Amino acid sequence: MWPRTLRRPMDELKTYLTSGRERAGLSQEAVAGRTRIPLRYIQALEEGRIRDLPGQVYARGFLRSYCRTVGLDEVEALRLLNESCRGEPRDEKPRYVSPADLLVGSQRHTSGQFAYVVIAIVFLIGILVALLTVGTGTDTGNLSRIKSDRGADWTEQLPSQ
User: Fold this and answer.
1) CA–CA separation, 128 vs 75, rounded Å?
2) Residue 95 is assigned to a structural domain of this protein
3) CATH number for the domain including 63?
4) For the segment 62-80, what is each residue's pLDDT rounded down to a tens digit?
5) pTM of the prediction?
């Protein structure tokens, strides 16, 4: 646990995160790369600008991921975050968050990747159709059996009415 020498929990959180990252020997860019959290959100966490994050749920998730990456105690960091946010008024209207900002932990897809997915789906559908049609072709042995069962030449046409 960290000593409580600072007055404000947000100052404690900022010091806790920054010193933990420095002890781990990581830059902000390295933490952003390892966690796949955008750099501007890493900077907002370390500078105590919680309002610049997409929302409280994301702030908590980013904080957990940050702590795991630099080897800090998540519970202590979340406690400091909760204490620092306790007195702040909540936004009445939720902020707009770009869908691109929410793709934390995964790569953003490009149109080229989308084309590969479409091609793979079409290919798989073609294989499925081919597999389903195997065995539905005509067998000449069956035709001769049908001809002998009917007693008629299979080349004859049906009588017209």
Assistant:
1) 50
2) no
3) 1.10.260.40
4) 999 999 999 999 998 888 8
5) 0.52
